[in-house]
Amino acid sequence: MLSTPPVHPRRKVAIVGTALSDCGRVDDATPYTLHAQAARRALADSGLDRSLIDGFASAGLGTLAPVEVAEYLGLRPTWVDSTSVGGSTWEVMAAHAADAIAAGHANAVLLVYGSTARADIKARRRTANLSFGARGPLQFEVPYGHTLVAKYAMAARRHMHEYGTTLEQLAEVAVQARANAATNPDAMFRDPVTVDDVLSGPVIADPFTKLHCCVRSDGGCAVLMVAQEYVPDAAKEPVWVLGAGTAVSHTTMSEWEDFTVSPAAVSGRLAFERAGVRPSDIDLAQIYDAFTYMTLVTLEDLGFCEKGAGGAFVEKGRLLRDGGLPVNTDGGGLSACHPGMRGLFLLVEAVRQLRGEAGEGQVRKRNGRLPELAVASGTGGWFCSSGTVVLGRG
């Protein structure tokens, strides 16, 4: 007769180490170098020994990711994840890692990313992306020139048509991201821009001008997640993973039921329910912003405002560090850095803010205290996937 296995209580999960590699313009490093820099720095930030790491997650580099990168870092993990769903990869991986740690399948999981996308193009080691591929369902769109930016532009135009969202409101997202970047010494662009600057720039894909689009940079970062019993040995205050949600939507644009609704509408609802909090409880948000429209529609879908009200919501400095809902406090992909799949940077910035480590760019609550709750929401592809993670201090 088979015996019933014992039921073990789920362990709490915390982020205890974060770090950036060299970022911005990095012409003398390989992507492996940036992975290693970020990993070493995150481990040092945690104060824990590398022998504790038994889980590893990475994507986008190597023939057998994450095996190749783990080997480069000298790690032999017993739990791995190489999920690759574009920009939301890292929030999805964080959700997977949190579940694995909670269930006892791993004790400490290192998430790491690095890319020299900018340097590779400058050195002509690669070209800019015109298409993600021409096989499978994508073959029906590629001949018509549907680039990544064009797909986002189409969605933005639909939102403008449905809800009266204006170009000026979309431009406000870029203006406020740049203002937040001004206090971030690691940001690639820090000089202020105006709405007129955004509107008068060269058109990339109607209605997006250059400043509606993210920067192309080099860079990497890392996050170390551990089980609760290792938190007392960590060097700094933990940031707890309170809840996470993931969702996918579509690949071909014809299968997207509503261009004004992103999969964050699902991942966000799940994350908030599992964390036991509401959007109104959140002190700051880190949102994937390859284009200004992404920020606006994700704010709607996460529940910070009603559907269609995103344009009005982002006006009057609401997204600034001292605004009603600080968003992308490091400057985001629009101004700070965007080396490819930026989702892990969202988690790093959220943790730094909750720890009070953001220097001049530190968010404070009205009573002067540090923020207590943050959300990081990543988007992949052309709103194809979403991962949302709720983090809490104390």
What would you note in describing this structure?
The longest helix has 16 residues. The protein is 31% helix and 17% strand. The model has no long low-confidence stretch (mean pLDDT 94). The protein contains 12 helices and 11 strands. By secondary structure, it is α/β, with parallel strands linked by helices. It is globular and about 55 Å long.
Strand content: 15-25%
Strand and helix order = EHEHEHEHHHHEEEEHEHHHHEE
Characterize the biggest β-sheet: 9 strands, mixed
End-to-end CA span: 45 Å
> Stretches where pLDDT falls below 50 for ≥5 residues?
none
Strand numbers in spatial order across the main sheet: 3-2-4-7-1-8-11-10-9
Number of helices: 12
- Number of DSSP-assigned strands: 11
The rounded Rg comes to: 20 Å
Would you kindly provide a brief summary of this structure?
The protein has helices spanning 31-46, 67-72, 89-102, 117-122, 148-163, 167-181, 195-199, 264-275, 292-301, 310-313, 332-335, 343-355, and strands at 13-20, 55-57, 79-81, 108-115, 203-205, 208-209, 219-227, 239-248, 284-287, 373-380, 385-393.
Relevant terms:
394 residues; two-stranded antiparallel ribbon; 12 helices; 11 strands; globular
Give the helix/strand layout.
Blueprint lengths: L12 E8 L10 H16 L8 E3 L9 H6 L6 E3 L7 H14 L5 E8 L1 H6 L25 H16 L3 H15 L13 H5 L3 E3 L2 E2 L9 E9 L11 E10 L15 H12 L8 E4 L4 H10 L8 H4 L18 H4 L7 H13 L17 E8 L4 E9 L1
Parallel strand pairs: 2-3, 2-4, 9-10
Antiparallel strand pairs: 1-7, 1-8, 4-7, 5-6, 8-11, 10-11
